[in-house]
Amino acid sequence: MRAALDGLARLDTPEAKLAQLKGFAPASLSPSARIDLETVRAGLAVDAQLLRRFPIGRLGRSPYTIAPNAGAWRDAAPVVGKVEAESEKIRADAAHGVILPAPLLERTQAGVAAAAEKANGPAGQALRQQAALLAELAPKALAEPGTGRFPGGADYFALLLERHYGARIAPAEAHRILLDKAQELTARTDTVLKRLGYTKGSVSARISAAFKDPRFLYSDDDAGRDRLVADMNATLARVPARLPALFGPLPPECLNVATVRMTRAEEAEGKQGYRTVPTPTSPGAYYPDLKRIRDRPSWTLPAVVHHELLPGHMIQMPIEAAADPHPLRLEYAPAFAEGWAIYTEQLMATDGAFAGDDHALLGHLHWLLFRIGRGLVDTGVHIGQETLAQTSSKLAKLQGEAAYFAPMAQDIERICIDPAMRAAEALTWLGLARIGATERRKGTESLRKFHRRLLANGRKRFAMIA
Fold first, then answer.
1. Alpha helices (H) in 222-326, listed in sequence order
2. pLDDT at residue 403 above 90?
3. Where is this region: Disordered (predicted)?
4. Are 43 and 14 contacting, i.e. CB atoms less than 8 angstroms apart?
5. What are the C-alpha distances in Å from 271 to residues 154, 259, 275, 290?
6. What is the mean pLDDT of the chain?
7. Average pLDDT for residues 17-35, to the nearest whole number?
8. What are the tens digits of pLDDT across the range 182-213?
9. In whole angstroms, how far apart are CA 261 and each of 26, 175, 189, 348?
10. Which of 381, 455, 463 is nearest to 164 (CA)?
11. pLDDT digits (tens, 9 = 90+) for 98-136
């Protein structure tokens, strides 16, 4: 079966790929292989509908063939054939009523033109022609983004959401779920802020005031950065004692992790935070981005430890790696890993990790507001037809301060280009939290069994979990 999955790349259509997998019986396969097969089949079925109804953009990713963050023009040495093929696809997309919205088209055109200046010979010519094509389409471009603004776009978003989330859900229902959670989180944050003495102004304004409190800011030097890393590791050291009650036995490598400071060169260039996954023979690490350390109050960090290290990514990823899922499973269950990590932040809060530390609890709630805000931007732009100005205002009102690694304007742009992913991540988190709460009410062992089932053999589509 794995050989058949490997061979799917040689086939042209989702239908042909589904036919290639038709003869395999899930019951005859190992648990991990069965998840591979069922996940890929479900994902291909959605892709088949997308391609049949919406032959636009990048299948399963974006309605736009190129964008400020995508396209052959961004390659170090653009290939002529690829550029020309993308230009033909841009024309075909336009014939279906899909053109990059004006703000994104303008930036993309400028990028393509700049790439053309650097390229030589036929590649430069192909890029100049592509820039001219974008200029030709500019008068037809809509002023605002959103799949709901092009023909059939609401159905397109629904299919993309099903693909990423791994279960069918009406976009309007998804938006309602996210909005309800945003209201709940805002009320909880208001209560915590008042306990901390922040009583005047909106919730977002009070969050911003807390971010600027000098008592919780690290010095912008080596000593400050070293202290931040030490503080994260101190939080991490308190986690292992909580894990047996929540998960039962875990692979030893999951606990062989730490926060590690980036190299000075990485810090200077502003490299984003990254992680190395532990294996049975090597430790794992999370390397936080500390270039703008004054924007990272100490109380925002405990939740980061639970998300990036334990019990978040550093439990899920090593267990998944041992299961050796086919790469196509990762393609067709993309929201699981992030949804799991957000769920574990909430799990630790429920388990009392922030008890007696309202500042750490505020940090946790701010991160959740960021996650839910992303999901609301996703559904708001793409099915609610909200403008960029409305979306920016909503996000600022909800979370006050942007998440450290995701400036609001940059985050909104990515959501406009790549619909449904942030909503899928938030829905996965909320779905896991709903099931987890039910299992917790049954008792500790029921919660442990749920977590073991959830983690066993790697990520799954949400329909396999619910």
1. 222-237, 243-247, 264-269, 301-304, 313-323
2. no
3. 268-287
4. no
5. 36, 16, 12, 9
6. 97
7. 96
8. 999 999 999 999 999 999 999 999 999 999 99
9. 45, 38, 31, 24
10. 463
11. 999 999 999 999 999 999 999 989 999 999 999 999 999
Both tokens of 148, joined, read 């709901």
Which helix (H) or strand (E) is 84 found in, with range?
Answer: helix 80-95
Could you tell me if 98 and 64 are in contact, meaning their C-beta atoms sit under 8 angstroms apart? Answer: yes
**Which one-letter DSSP state was computed for residue 420?**
T
Domain ranges of the chain: 2-50, 72-151, 165-464
CA–CA dist 11, 20 (Å, integer): 9
Q: What is the pLDDT of residues 321-358, one digit of tens each?
A: 999 999 999 999 999 999 999 999 999 999 999 999 99
User: 255: helix, coil or strand?
Assistant: helix
DSSP assignment of 104-133: HHHHHHHHHHHHHHH--HHHHHHHHHHHHH
| pLDDT mean over 448-457 | 98
Q: Are strands 257-259 and 284-287 parallel, antiparallel or unpaired?
A: parallel
How far from chain centre, in Å, is Cα 329? 16
Query: Which pair of tokens denotes residue 23?
Result: 């003869």
Contacts of 277 (CB under 8 A, 6+ apart): 284, 313, 314, 317, 318, 321
What the block records as the tokens of 63 is 């309605």
Say yes or no to pLDDT of 31 above 90: yes
Q: What is the DSSP-derived secondary structure letter of residue 234?
A: H
* Residues belonging to the chain: 466
d(CA 180, CA 376): 10
Find out whether 226 and 261 touch, Cβ atoms under 8 Å. yes
Which residue from 392, 400, 404 is spatially nearest to 300, judged by alpha carbons? 404
Cβ density class 271-284: b for 16+ within 10 Å, e for less: eeeebebbeeeeeb
